[in-house]
Design goal:
The structure is a single chain. The protein is about 25% helix and about 25% strand. With about 200 residues, the chain is α+β, with helices and mostly antiparallel strands. The protein has two domains: about 110 residues, Chitinase A, domain 3 (Roll); about 30 residues, no CATH class. Helix 4 runs antiparallel to helix 5. The radius of gyration is 30 Å and the shape is elongated. The relative contact order is 0.15. It comes from Panagrolaimus sp. PS1159. This is Peptidylprolyl isomerase.
Length: about 200
Amino acid sequence: MYGIYTDGIGTVEVDLAAATNAIGKKKKPEESIPVIEIRGEGKPMTAAQIRALEETSNGGPLDIKIEKTWRPVACPHAAKRLDFVTFHYKGFLEDGKKFDQTYGRGPIRIQLGTGMVMPGLDKGMRGMCDTELRKISVPFRLSRKNKSKVWKHIPNDEHWLNFNIEMLEVEEWTLEKQFKFMDLNNDTCKFFNQKMKTFNKQYF
């Protein structure tokens, strides 16, 4: 059964039975949600604009995300500020593409809390144990400060960087180790070794 509907502009033939059924039919919850179609025009959003939107949605600055994929039962010493850590990593972009890794060229040894590595990784490796595995996701704001030559492969236009970390060794800080770490060519280690043994006996 059909009817004629006129709105002053034109005349439309309407299927009255279908219209009646549609009015009386109870909608599903998902059908009640309005659908908005957005058609973008102009240049694509920059990485900075995307970051700004995500932080606004988050209600504040983004922080790292940590997934502990494997941890040993025994952990005699968990990494903390000023400790020395030796580790391997694989770095991935947001789309899963690997951009760098240390496997094949040797692990990295740094001192935590001294600006030797991007702030997000430094924070993400705190509490790690020997042989532990972690996945650390670092937002842009925690991946660019104090960027050194070691991290030259890290891209500048990505929002999130994802790292698979394999902790090889955690060395607890001592004054003797600090001097050895500062004296990388070992030209004064013999002198400092003796001095530190004497100093530690007197003051520690």
